[in-house]
Amino acid sequence: MKAWSFTQNPILHATDGSYQLGMQLSTFHDSALNAAKADPFILPLYNSYHPLHLAYKTAYETWVAQGGMQQGETLNLSQLLQLLSNTKIKAWDIAIQNVYAQNTTQYTKLLPNRRTPFQQGSQQNKINAVNGLSIAIGTSTALATVKADVDNFYKQLDLALTTQKGSKTNTATMSGNLETARVNFCIAQYRSEEHTSELQ
Length: 200
Description:
This protein is mainly alpha-helical. Helix content is 80%, strand content 0%.
């Protein structure tokens, strides 16, 4: 049987970068203590460790759920940007050309680079292009219907982007909480293993 090393915390090392493994090890350790808590020596170890296990379990499950939410928000924004590139800008361009021919000054003021800014570049640049089109249309009564659709779509894009960034921030916060919980349970588990080894 491999001797236990007191020079470092192997549990902390093993679970570094793997919260899933941490969940498995913590669950196993908590269950083992629970099964032996009739022993008066084990009971205090279980009582001190179990809350840390529950804290890690809660942080881990919340982190996993938030990761799924973040993926959903990212997908929503990606879908809207895909709709912008493939459908919306084409419809807006055609509607504008029904009022101003493509080679006119009025058309160029609205879409100086035609559809390119709505189909290429960063997410933020594409969203900015939508807002820029709305500003360029201004109070034009001939393009009032187009402007209404542009404004409505811009609000959807802006909300999706804000929500996605909020999800990423929440995920980062939850990752920090989970890391703290991981360190706490690893230290407690190492100490309980150390005490148990001293009895052998």
